Input
Amino acid sequence: MNMTYLHHSGFQIETKHSVLLFDYYTQNGMFDRVNEGDFPHKKFYIFVSHGHGDHYDPAILRWADRAHYILSDDVELPKDFKGEVTWVKPHQKLTVDDLEIETLASNDQGVAFVVKVAGKRTVFHAGDLNWWHWNGESEEFNNDIADSYRREIDLLKGREIDVACVPADPRLQDKYDWAVDYFMETVGAKVLLPMHFWKHFDICEKLRQKPYGAHVALIRREGDTFII
Ligand SMILES: [Zn+2]
Output
């Protein structure tokens, strides 16, 4: 399958019969990268981890006639929206067509997704589940965040993850890599795609220097595609 980095925490996965989108965010149309005409016969599955503006973009609603939406239950839709929607909360398991979906609890808002695609590849998308250690925050806050992040990631121990999308946010300064480090040391993934890095693509190069660096996809720009 082809996996394309779109913008911020947004990814597109193209399989034989479908297109999966995660946290598609166009930033007021500036990064509107999906042209439905490129996939004439493919169904869209559109995942939104939570309702924050940098993860849920109403631009996705224009595909209602060909999409199934898997939305965290805090996402607000227009009242007259008629599309096909499955609402999710943390710690659920469900099946939508050939997708086996599990959710984790985010320690920010909403959920993280684990999706087995067509019985083959397993994709993890963290949403805003992150080791949000802010320098200058109270020890209590940072300890709670550490606990909540590790508790959720530990639920994946022993699982085989093909692709993992995990935040590496440079606003966390020298702690930007804690979430990815913990994920790779505890669970691991064949391919790790950093996200939520606010266009600081150098983050990917830095993560490539890590002991697990060979698994990190070197994203150089929006629109980069990787064959998984
Ligand atoms: Zn976010």
